[in-house]
Write a structure and sequence with these properties.
Strand content: 15-25%
Number of domains: 2
CATH class of the largest domain: Alpha Beta
CATH topology of the largest domain: Rossmann fold
Distance between the termini: 56 Å
Oligomer: single chain
Number of strands: 11
CATH superfamily of the largest domain: Vaccinia Virus protein VP39
Strand order of the largest sheet: 7-6-5-8-9-11-10
Number of helices: 11
Length: 305
């Protein structure tokens, strides 16, 4: 694999028309650079980066494929590609990620939302009936879980907590841009010091969480897109990946209303262990939901009656 300063290969034949690079040729050339460096999905990343550099959408890239590239765009694109060759994720380069068909701006203090986490939103919506809801999001990051639920439930409000002040500010900014600031509030709090009796309201109909769950020993084996650019505090879950669940499970019962529901994301192979921690904390497991890849991705629990 090449390093951060992978030289740009010569432009392929047909990339230039009347002496100027064409948009389609530049896109193919960019994909070839990324592929040569071992980047996964080079064609997709090339389309996104070329579109961003030229400020063109997907359809425009196709329609204008034979048009010459503006002089300034190649230099701008080369700067973007250099960052991708350094394994910076496209979402970080663009500073945003789509989640639940909503756009979330990212900062270094926030986890990059993954499509698998939409399973948490689906489970929460399926587990709640009609009527007003108060939602608590533990470790809110960009605010994606809380704001996705609020976008579907106009009768819901919520509170997002995070130990990072930068993440709290980013979540609040996302809520404002999405028009949800009136129903979402965010606080800088660390769940390690206990939350019961310290929140307003004191109990919630829904608790959401995507805690850090990567076993410490597995961190070094993750893709550099993760280890170099996601906050380690949002990833590292202790020796077995379950430290956060051990801290939170005893608190969940006291933070839920009698008819409330908790929906926690879990890592691959962790669902049974997390369910056991919840059961020991006087919670009843009502479901384990798999993501689109078939991995058991979240545990759903209620107070035992």
């Amino acid at each position: 694999m090449r390093g951060d300063h992978t030289p740009a290969p010569a432009l392929e034949q047909g990339c230039r028309r009347d002496g100027a690079a064409t948009i389609g040729g530049l896109r193919r050339h960019t994909a070839a650079r990324l592929a040569a460096a071992g980047i996964e999905q080079p064609a997709l990343d090339a389309r996104i980066l070329v579109g961003h550099a030229l400020e063109l959408g997907r359809d425009q890239l196709l329609m204008l494929a034979d048009q010459p590239v503006p002089d300034h765009a190649e230099a701008r694109l080369d700067a973007l590609v250099t960052r991708r060759l350094a394994r910076e994720p496209v979402s970080r380069i663009l500073g945003q990620r789509e989640f639940w068909s909503l756009r979330f701006d990212l900062v270094p203090e926030t986890l990059d939302p993954r499509p698998d986490s939409e399973t948490v939103v689906e489970a929460a919506l399926a587990a709640t009936g009609a009527g007003p809801l108060e939602v608590l999001d533990l470790g809110t990051g960009s605010g994606c879980l809380l704001l996705a639920v609020l976008s579907e439930r106009p009768d819901a409000g919520g509170l997002g907590l995070d130990a990072s002040a930068g993440a709290v500010a980013a979540a609040a900014a996302n809520a404002a841009r999405l028009g949800l600031a009136g129903r979402a509030r965010f606080e800088h709090r660390d769940w390690r010091w206990g939350l019961a009796g310290r929140l307003t309201p004191p109990r919630f109909q829904v608790i959401l969480a995507n805690p850090p769950y990567i076993p410490t020993g597995d961190l070094s084996g993750l893709e550099p897109e993760v280890t170099r650019f996601d906050p380690i505090a949002a990833l590292a879950g202790g020796p077995d990946g379950l430290d956060a669940y051990r801290l939170l499970a005893p608190q969940v019962h006291d933070l839920l209303t009698a008819d409330g529901v908790a929906v926690f994301e879990v890592g691959q192979g962790q669902a049974a262990s997390v369910a056991g921690l919840f059961t020991a904390a006087n919670l009843e497991i009502t479901g384990i939901r798999a993501d689109l890849g078939g991995v058991e991705r979240c545990v759903v629990a209620r107070p035992r009656r």
